[in-house]
Amino acid sequence: MKLSSTIPLAYLLLCLPLSVAAEVRSDTVLITDLKKHYAFTKQLQKLSVTYTKQRETVFQSNKLDQPFTINSNYEKLFDLSKGQFYYHQVHHYPGNYIFNDIIVHQEGKSILYDVNGFTKGKQLQYLDYNQADFHQDLAEDIDIFSAHTFLSDADSKNTTIKRSDTWAELTKSNAEEEQLTYRFNLQPIQLVSVMQHQSKKKTEYTNPVQKMGLTYASKVRRFTKGELKSTVNITNIKEIPHIKQTMLAIPQGYGPFVDTKRKPLEWVKLANDLYLINHVAGNRHVLVKMDSKGLTLFGAPASSKVSEQVQLLINNNLPMKKIHSVYITHGHSDHMGGVGYFAEQGITVLADKYSIRALKAFPRFKKTATNWNYSTLKHKQTVNGVTFYLPKNSHSDGQSFAYFPMSEIIYQGDFLEIPFDNSLPTHMADVEKEFIEFLYSEKIAYKRIVGHHRNNNMTPEVVNAYYKAHHPN
Ligand SMILES: [Zn+2]
User: How confident is the model at residue 24 (pLDDT cuts 50, 70, 90)?
Assistant: First the structure.
């Protein structure tokens, strides 16, 4: 027989030193008080939340030595009584690219559509993004939801408490086993900050706003290792009677649903000396050009793992040929992440001088990139039958595209983004205008533009129609 099971809990508490018992009791009271304070969030069944976010980026910036601030707008509505939500996000990137997506959720299904139609065109996508995901995301930016979620399973056993009369710090592990410390002011109760210990991330909640009998922080700042990474400004939180049916409806002209299943790499012959590889890490494309010395790869995958898969496919299809060069269009993180895999084998990196500087500054390559072989591309330079152009543009200080005169094919990344269904986006980025006008002014004859992202076959007809739709004169 176990002794403990026969001894009443009250007796055990009596045996504890008085101060410890008092502390246990007061910790329990504190957690109960905090839970009570945030219990109102449960009653928020139908809500609209709007906010902006500013995030600094170095390796998506248009200037190598100056971080770019990505401005984002969010509009999120939910109706728990009907199991519906609406999630609209808009992100502004260098060159005036605007990502503008809406997710609508009802009857257990989430559907995503692209408002400007620049990444997905008119295609619709079922999304594996449910109500729990939506509310978890919301809790990351709104203090009252964050506090409520954290406190929901807190008790004096799983939570360590440090406190004074005016503040309290509660430390507890989350489902991913990361230690979190929530710091609250107690007079009045208000979440001040959240510390994620393992990842060294800190979120600070300030500028409280009182509305509808609740108080929420209208400014949220995120730090990693003490460095400010992003700022959120809550512009409005309000109760709504319901989500309007027009907001939940898919606009006319959209469809069909796109198959988002990952496809294996595909090898396509474009000309005697030119091959296209499709489905690189989902929906990217690279080209392989043969010359007397071997092969050049145009466009690097975003990671070493995918670079390895690409090299294996090339070896299988052209076993007698070796890759001697790898070309990147510009020094943005998603266009250079997989270069190291090739460069470490002694393969020469072809890029403009700014992109080479970006490679050497990129954290992943900082230790190794100084030892790689480079060939610095100049404007209108021809290398092994391929001409490289470096037009001035607003997306990146250093950015080039490759022109294959024999097959009249252009390979580019982030100069032009017509979606793969060739529908015309409703917003044209500045850099796209600059690029198309450059093609016109240089009178470059092409049959096909292969984009690193998404569309591997943009024809002059579609490009001209796109330009005309936005610049009719
Ligand atoms: Zn880019």
Answer: low
Terminal Cα distance for the chain, rounded = 92
Q: Beta strand pairing status for 381-383 and 294-298?
A: unpaired
Architecture per CATH, domain 40-248, reads as Clam (2.50)
CATH 2.50.20, the chain: domain bounds: 40-248
CB within 8 A of 76, min separation 6: which ones? 48, 49, 50, 85, 86, 87, 88, 134, 138
Q: How far is the CA of 325 from the centre of ligand 1 (A)?
A: 21
| pLDDT number for residue 214 | 83
67-90 confidence digits (pLDDT tens): 999 999 999 999 999 999 999 999
* Average pLDDT of every residue of the chain: 93
334 C-alpha vs ligand 1 centroid, how far in Å?
A: 7
Instruction: Give distance in angstroms: CA of 395 to centre of ligand 1.
Output: 6
* CATH 3.60.15.10, the chain: domain bounds: 266-470
62-71, 304-313, 408-417: segment of lowest average pLDDT: 62-71
- Looking at 3.40.47.10, 3.60.15.10, 3.30.470.10, 3.40.605.10, the CATH number of the domain 266-470 comes to 3.60.15.10
| DSSP helix/strand/coil, 473 | coil
- Rounded CA separation 314/280 (Å): 13
291 DSSP β-pair partners: 294
CA 11 to ligand 1 centroid distance, Å: 68
Dist CA 218 CA 233 (whole Å) = 6
Q: How many angstroms separate the alpha carbon of residue 256 from the centre of ligand 1?
A: 29
Please name the residues in contact with 216: beta carbons below 8 A apart, sequence gap of 6 or more.
142, 143, 144, 208, 209, 234, 237
The alpha-helical segments, DSSP class H, found in 230-377 are 245-248, 304-317, 333-336, 339-343, 353-361
Ligand 1: distance of its center to the CA of 354 in Å? 13
User: Per-residue pLDDT tens for 391-431?
Assistant: 999 999 999 999 999 999 999 999 999 999 999 999 999 99
